[in-house]
Structure formats: C-alpha cells, structure tokens
C-alpha cells in the first residue's frame, strides 16, 4: 500500500516539472521582458506581445488541464461477463472451453478484431471482453477505449476521451514555444551583444530563449507524428502491432480516408476543432472499419472467431 502511494505521488513529478517551467516562463516573459526590458517607445509592441502571449498561454493551459484531468473512457457494462458466465469461466481450465464462453457472451457485441491467435480479446484484470482498439493500461490499472499510450507528462492515459485534448495540447504548446522564442530572439541578441544594460533580466531572457527553442524542437516531432496517426486513423499501439481481423492483421483496417479520419477525432463542426471541448464522434466502442465498407461478408463477427489453439 505504501509503495502504491509513493508511485502515485512520484507520477505527478513530470506534471509538476512542466507546471513550474510554464509558471517561470510566464514570469520571465511578462515581468522581466515586457515590463522591465522594453523601452518606452516599444510600449505598443509590448502590449501586442502581451495580448498574443496571454491568448496562446490560456489555450495551452486549458488544453493541458483537460488532457490531465479527463478520465480515460472505459468499456460499458455490456462488455462485462454475467455473473454466471464469470463463475463458469473461472472454473474452466481449458482455453478452448473458456473461449467458447467468451464467444457466446460476445455474440451480439460490436467486435471485429481478435488476438493474433484468433481468440476473443479478454482482460482478466478487469474481467471484461475488450472492445475493438481497447487495451489495458498497467499504470492506470483500467481498460481504456481506443488507447493510444500512457503519457507520464500528463500522468494520464491518452485515449478516446482525451485524444483531441492531447493533440491540441501539443499544438498550442508548439505555438506557445514558437511565439516566445521568436519574440525573445531580438532581445536575446541584444543582451548577448551587450546592447542592453546587464541586469538580472538578462539571465531570464537567455534561458527563456533556450528553453522555448528546446521544447519547440522536441514537441515538433511528436506533434508531426500524431498528425500522421490521425490521418491514418491509427493509435500508437496499432502502429507497432496491427489489429487482427478475420483476414489477418491490417494496419489500415480502421482508416476511412484522411477527411473522415480527421472528423472522427475532431467532430463534424469545424468551429469547435480548435477548442479543448469534447467533439469526437462515436462512443469509443463502435468503429466503422475499412473491411465493413469494402465487403461486409468478410467481417470477423464474434460467432465466427476461431477458438484459441
């Protein structure tokens, strides 16, 4: 129990680190740069900087907050075994008999994927049949719908309920770092060439430029990668292990085309795309597949899933 408590406390260390860096960047930019370092004839420019800065800062913090504190979506009760099936499943020792129980329970569920051995995906920890694209997170100790990965920087799972928030968090943090680095650059050069008086603000400005540039470079690759995933309608897990349908593994099995893939995450109303408000389509359990569109007869319905060998 003590070990679990320590793990929960330590899991917030990366989040606390990001919060401290963001709080310091706010102080360094607003107080040290815009209030103390700009000359009187640059007041108008400083006001413009502050307006744009606070707008990007607010959107960044809002999306980061939503990513952290949005609970991962879990499968509904319809995917849980009944009490009788659960008792029978636990009594059975043969995998074939257990799979027969799972096939009977999953007969009417919207499941089109299986394990690599053609067995029904079942979580012994949560004691439920996994919907498509659902995976168990060992850190959160819960099954997460459309799980992408567990992110230590937000101390939360990134999945169906908060994937849009995570993408916006990456985008606004990227814009935040880019804006800070671009506007600080001229003062960074002036401080470096001793065109401005040496004060304690010099060190804040120097470090602010380096930190913003460093985070911008690191976030850019991650954001580009997730933009590619959205266009392909894949999760990070599915990139490394393609989902298995009746016809075998298919890494593009859930792709419906770039436009429809984008709307699946951000919704149909474009006016809400840039706001960290949940607008994703579906319920996290029912996903249209490329196989359904191409040939409905080839879809792996649960009753046709072969038993594990």
From TrEMBL:
Alphabetical list of Pfam families matching this protein: DHHC
EC number: 2.3.1.225
Primary residence: membrane
Catalytic reaction list: L-cysteinyl-[protein] + hexadecanoyl-CoA = S-hexadecanoyl-L-cysteinyl-[protein] + CoA
Domain Palmitoyltransferase DHHC: 120-240
Subcellular location(s) per record: Membrane
Membrane topology per record: Multi-pass membrane protein
Entry keyword set: Acyltransferase, Membrane, Transferase, Transmembrane, Transmembrane helix
GO cellular component, one term: membrane
Molecular function per GO: protein-cysteine S-palmitoyltransferase activity
Top-rank lineage group of the source organism: Eukaryota
Family: Belongs to the DHHC palmitoyltransferase family.
Domain commentary: The DHHC domain is required for palmitoyltransferase activity.
Name of the protein this chain belongs to: Palmitoyltransferase
